[in-house]
Design goal:
548 residues; alpha/beta; Rossmann fold; GMP Synthetase, Chain A, domain 3; four-stranded parallel sheet; 25 strands; globular
Length: 548
């Protein structure tokens, strides 16, 4: 990571401690790989959606040696950063795990980034090697001269598993005398996609990753017989932690399609014998829309899937109930951040104890609601709105080369500020109502955008919705919204205009005149970050010219 890496981050000790364990429990990604290979060497760890290639735990461990040998041949060494610009595939997974197993830091780059954003990430990360797929080779080659330092390029076919030679496999333990990575070593540098300014590089340690892999496995009662359909991209923290690392902790397996397809999703899950699925709310909306168009399989075909895990952002209750009614699969709603290795809240595994509309209770660490003084609210303040905060072994070390942002992210007593507004009920369940920066303040009254979203989603023509505040000379802000329609809901310009008026009236009937959107625009899609969260501040930029 270089001289300006973790040591310069200025992180509170409580946030950087990492997982300690008892000596037997995995404390690093190295431990996760080694432990799984010892316990179940011949069991399948990962396979592609077509079932053409399968990777056992023993083969994964051997491929770690091949990856590390190649990284050394490219002139890099443990603690260096390796950037990956690759879609999902078994080779993508092998390069990520092989590098971390050997003590390298991996930097998976968002493939949806604009060229300038990608250039910034490669430049800022101080990567020594860029690993990319053949279709990305030319764009990446064009970016490298602008980095101002030599960077080696490795082209890898993501769908072709990494082969191993005896010599490469023997290097799995590194050169003679090389120690395995420590729990406090930075293993993952993942850049967040902020709505303003340059993305920040989140530093997550070997200990952070190992701790959350174990917490996810325990939270959902996962074991060796469980297989997850991993449709989220591995540059997404949720996929990285939940579908790649957690199976190493519980000895399960992952099916890795190249990307999400609503049309192929259920066949992939059933044909590859998945027992659980891991998605984000946007995917749930697309699966429901496909079902409405006649794309729902018979429920008996899905009987082997015991769990749908919804993650990254709050799931609208209407979609939650509709999914369970349509597919007969219970949803465990969770939420987390890149800064906490994805999940930090989860509903219970037992269906009777879950709460629709809640992101669940603290998972893998502690959580609280901060008051205006940035101190945790007392028990007698249950139900009051404040900022959600998190503390525990899964919390990041800090932001790379950004001590100011790191300091601002933590309270003086070590709580990570999430930027999410919400409250906790008497049972310890947390409810998210919006982002602090996205709160609508109309006439001095606070309005949570999510409340408006959920009201609009009750209309049968609406697939997706996002409310936000627009500048207003009288109220300070006025309520506006963008909606995505279900396929076939409106075909002509006249039908769209009529539906727009109908949705405004629907909003007023659900919310009253004060909270209802005064302006509403129908759009083909909503802007989202890599975690699936709507970027509401970008909607303001899109909407204002039309409002004028």
């Amino acid at each position: 990571m270089g001289a300006e890496g973790p040591a310069a981050a200025g992180v509170p000790v409580a946030a950087a401690a990492g997982a300690q364990g008892d000596g037997a429990a995995p404390r690093t990604v190295f431990d996760l790989v080694e432990g799984a290979a010892r316990a179940r060497p011949d069991a399948v760890y990962a396979l592609d959606a077509e079932g053409r290639h399968a990777l056992t735990f023993a083969a994964l461990r051997a491929s770690c040696g091949a990856v590390q040998a190649r990284l050394r041949a490219l002139g890099s060494a443990p603690r260096d950063t390796v950037s990956l610009i690759m879609p999902n595939g078994l080779a993508t997974l092998q390069w990520l795990l092989g590098a971390m197993h050997g003590g390298w830091c991996v930097n998976p780059v968002n493939l949806l980034s604009q060229p300038e954003q990608m250039r910034y990430v490669l430049a800022h990360s101080d990567c020594k090697v860029v690993c990319t797929s053949p279709d990305w080779e030319a764009p990446v080659q064009a970016l490298l001269p602008a980095l101002g330092r030599p960077v080696a390029l490795q082209v890898v076919d993501p769908a072709r598993p990494v082969g191993t030679s005896a010599a490469a496999a023997a290097q799995t333990d590194g050169p003679a005398g090389a120690p395995p990575p420590r729990p406090d070593a930075v293993a993952l540098l993942m850049y967040t996609s902020g709505t303003t300014g340059q993305p920040k590089g989140v530093m997550l340690t070997q200990g952070n990753l190992a701790a959350n892999a174990q917490a996810i496995s325990a939270e959902h009662g996962l074991g060796p017989g469980d297989r997850v359909l991993g449709v989220l991209p591995l540059y997404h923290i949720n996929a990285f932690a939940v579908t790649m690392l957690a199976p190493l902790a519980h000895g399960g397996s992952v099916v890795l399609p190249p990307k999400f397809s609503a049309g192929q999703f259920w066949n992939q899950a059933v044909e590859r014998q998945c027992t659980w699925i891991n998605v984000v709310p946007t995917m749930i909306a697309f699966l429901l829309d496909a079902a409405a168009q006649g794309g729902a399989p018979p429920r008996e075909r899905l009987a082997g899937i015991r769990l749908c895990r919804s993650a990254s952002s709050a799931l609208p209750p209407e979609h939650h109930r509709a999914f369970e009614a349509t597919f007969g699969i219970g949803i465990v709603e969770t939420m987390g951040l890149t800064e906490t290795v994805a999940p930090s809240f989860s509903n219970p595994l037992e269906a009777a104890r879950r709460k629709v509309g809640s992101v669940g209770r603290a998972s893998g660490g502690e959580a609280c609601i901060l008051g205006r003084d940035l101190r945790p609210m007392r028990d007698d303040q249950t139900g009051q709105t404040g900022e959600l905060a998190i503390r525990g072994p899964h919390v990041m070390r800090g932001y790379y080369k950004n001590p100011e942002a790191t300091a601002a992210a933590f309270t003086p007593d070590g709580w990570l500020r999430t930027g999410d507004l919400g409250h906790r009920d008497a049972d310890g369940f947390y409810f998210v109502t919006g982002r602090i920066k996205e709160l609508i303040i109309k006439g001095g009254e606070n309005i949570a955008p999510r409340e408006i979203d959920e009201a609009l989603l009750k209309h049968p023509a609406v697939l997706d919705a996002a409310a936000f505040g627009l500048p207003d000379p009288h109220y300070g802000q006025e309520v506006a919204a963008c909606v995505v329609l279900r396929e076939g809901a409106a075909r002509s310009v006249a039908e769209v205009a009529a539906l727009q008026r109908e949705l405004l009236a629907h909003g007023e009937a659900e919310l009253g005149r004060f909270k209802a959107p005064r302006l509403l625009r129908i759009v083909p899609e909503l802007p989202r970050g890599p975690s699936g969260k709507v970027q509401r501040l970008k909607l303001v930029e899109m909407f204002v010219p039309a409002a004028r």
